[in-house]
Structures are given as C-alpha cells and as structure tokens.
Amino acid sequence: MAALSSFGSDLLEEAKHFLEMARGAKDSDGRKAFLHAALMLGFAAFEAHLNAIADDFLSRADLSPHERGLLAEQAVDLVDGEYKAKNVLKIHRIEDRVLFLCRRFSTSRVDRKAPYWSNFLEASHLRNRLTHPKSELPVIGDRAVERALHAIIELLNFMYTSIYKKKLPAYNRGLSSKLTF
C-alpha cells in the first residue's frame, strides 16, 4: 500500500494546487484548464487510495473469489464447478468498491444519508460529465471543484478512520496544498 498511497497523496496535493492556480488565473482558458486538471487529478488520487486500501486486504485467506475479484478488479468465472478470479480486467463502479470496503473491512458502514456521501456522488457525476461529455458540454466552476475535492477528502478520511483507525494524512490541510510549483 505504501507506494500507491504515497502516489495518491501526491496526486491529491497536485489537484489542490491546480485548484489554487485556477483561483489565481488571469484568463478564462487557463482557469478552465486548471479546474479540469484539479477535478481529474482529485479522482485519480481517490482511485489510487482506493486501490491501495484494496491491496491491503488482497492477501487475506478468508476472501471469497468474488471478493478477491472485486478488490483486484478481476473477472470471476465458474471453472470446473469452482469460482475463480481470472486475470481479466473487470471494472466495478467506484461507489460499489467504497461500499464493499467499508462494509467488509471497517467498523463503520458508509452512511448513505451523510453529506460526505451525497457530496461524493455529486462530485462523481461532475467528473463523469467532464470525462464522458454528451450534447451539453459541462461548465465547471471554482465552487464545484472545491466541493468535489472536499468530498473526496471527507470520504477518504471516513474510510481511513473506519478501516485503519487513523485520519487521512492530508485531512488537516483541507484544500490547502503544500506544493508551490
């Protein structure tokens, strides 16, 4: 987990710094590019942390093949009367992986009525609109990206606290980046 978690932390710092750069941008094209970068890096950071958490549990002997497949993002097939994970990519929704990790490996389940969850789902929807644009192109502003990054940090902190019994290392810095490039 250390390398993936560290990478996730780096990406989160980059996302926060791009948000800071967007706030200081003098032209609208630069501002838009920085906001897009901040949002996309924020989700890359989230997924890196999510994969790091999943990796921490992959070595457990008590996992079913379906659990192992979900954690490793691998397909599971019935082979000779037995379910086995196979080395074929199987992507699950990010929300489903979060819910599974918190249900299976933590002391607290995700409160699906809590602001951190609804804010994360809203952020995910915003990211999906940017990643998969349809006829109506997304317009993404400072506040939307701030809310998205805040939601990512809050949900990661919930996961770290409930699974590892410690805060997300970057939690106390909030949206302030330690980067200066």
Give an overview in words:
By secondary structure, this protein is mainly alpha-helical. The protein has one domain. Helices cover 62% and strands 8% of the residues. Strands 1-2 form a two-stranded antiparallel ribbon. Helix 2 runs parallel beside helix 6. The radius of gyration is 18 Å and the shape is globular. The two termini are 27 Å apart. The relative contact order is 0.16. The mean pLDDT is 95.
SS-based structural class? mainly alpha
- On the 0 to 100 scale, the average pLDDT is 95
User: What share of residues are in beta strands?
Assistant: 5-15%
Principal-axis shape:
globular
The secondary-structure element order is: HHHEEHHH
Total number of beta strands: 2
DSSP helical segment count: 6
Instruction: List the domain count as a whole number.
Output: 1
**Low-pLDDT ranges:** none
- Read across the widest sheet, the strand sequence of neighbours is 1-2
Cα separation of the termini = 27 Å
Radius of gyration: 18 Å
Main sheet specs: 2 strands, antiparallel
User: Can you give the helix content as a percent range?
Assistant: 55-70%
